[in-house]
Amino acid sequence: MTTASLHPIIKWAQRKDKIFIEVGLRDIQGESVNLTPTAIAFTGDSAGKKYAFSVELLEEVVPEVHFG
Q: What pTM, to 2 d.p., does this model score?
């Protein structure tokens, strides 16, 4: 039996030159972020639970990832 991932609370905004995503989790471990021209996907663990989400973007982007 596979355990389903939970969907974290996220805040998302997209500008012409930037995408802002805030993931409402603490102490994330094993995170993976996949940015394509049309979507962003996230998986990670927090407090012993698995979380994941995918967001379709409003406009296509150049997939350069900068964390800060």
A: 0.81
